[in-house]
Amino acid sequence: MAVLRLVFNIAWFVLGGFVMGLAWWLAGLLCFISIIGIPFGRACFVIGEMTFWPFGQDAINRRTLTGNEDLGTGAFGMVGNIIWFLFFGIWLAIGHIVHALACAVTIIGIPFALQHLKLAILSLTPIGQTVVAKA
């Protein structure tokens, strides 16, 4: 299973994952311009790394993972997600959806399209999420 995951991740990286990973990192750099944006930028780099190699990883809510509410999973997280959506989230989601449509043209590209759709949903509300390895 690990070999198949590696093959899919390499094919993903070559066929579009690199571009979207760079888009996430660019959003992270833009977030670092202001002090308030630093937590957003850090999240962008974590999710950008997941975007480079998405097979075998998943994003879940930290409240679900730990059972505790923190700053990102409470009211401040909701406000942060609204701000994120307006400035970066919608654009990253559009990029992932365009890539998903391009991948879904062929049967072989359907797993890649599903990963893009997973990342498009994540790009809309990333605050309060964490990346974990799938078992």
Give a quick set of tags describing it.
70% helix; YccF; mainly alpha; 135 residues; two-stranded antiparallel sheet
How would you characterize this protein structure?
- It is built from 5 helices and 2 strands.
- The chain is mainly alpha-helical and 135 residues long.
- The protein has one domain.
- It has a two-stranded antiparallel ribbon.
- The chain is globular and about 40 Å long.
- Keywords: Cell inner membrane, Cell membrane, Membrane, Transmembrane, Transmembrane helix.
- It holds the Pfam family YccF.
- It is found in: Cell inner membrane.
- Residues 7-57, 79-129 form the Inner membrane component domain.
Number of strands: 2
Give the count of structural domains.
1
Question: Which sequence of SSEs, written as H and E, runs from N to C?
Answer: HHEHHHE
Enumerate the strands of the largest sheet in spatial order, edge to edge or round the barrel.
1-2
Main β-sheet, in a few words? 2 strands, antiparallel
Query: What spatial form do the alpha-carbon principal axes imply?
Result: globular
Mean pLDDT across all amino acids? 91
Figure out the total of helices. 5
Structural class: mainly alpha
Low-confidence stretches: none
Helix amount: 55-70%
Strand fraction band? 5-15%
What is the gyration radius calculated from CA atoms?
15 Å
Gap from first CA to last CA: 11 Å
